[in-house]
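Just curious. Invent one:
>
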Amino acid sequence: MSERLAWPVEQLEVQPGDRVLEMGCGHGVAVSLVCERLDGGTITAIDRSRKMIDMATQRNREHVDSGKASFEVASVEEADLGGRRFDKLFSVNVNLFWRRPGLAVRTAERLVGEGGTAFFFGQSLAEPPEPAMRSSAEPLAAALEGGAFTSPRVWTTESAEHPFVCVAAQRA
């Protein structure tokens, strides 16, 4: 499973002191990969499922105990993170963001600090995946254009086994 998430985590270009937020962390696999890159930074991960948060916390017990990682039960729409801002926000296959690009933008505007970047990763089961992924990414990229974010970018993996599309934009 970590092989599938290696490409998205690489795209984040996590720096040792980054404050990272994962929305929809599931089993916490990406959190483990991000923690390997942190030294002084932290990752906060949310998921609406208590079961997933419990599993992710258990998987990352060492990182939680060291203060690198924290987990919270929260939905994307209702996440109250106490006014914290993050250097990097990311989500992997959170379909709500792809179906409701405006929600993705509002969430990122609320949680990404100045100069930070929001990354939204998605996969396609279509064959071939590339055209379907690109067409699904266009509305999200358009929603990120202007306002608090600048120059959204869209790119895909070269991997046929784990095809991903990424839409990312930096907060102005």
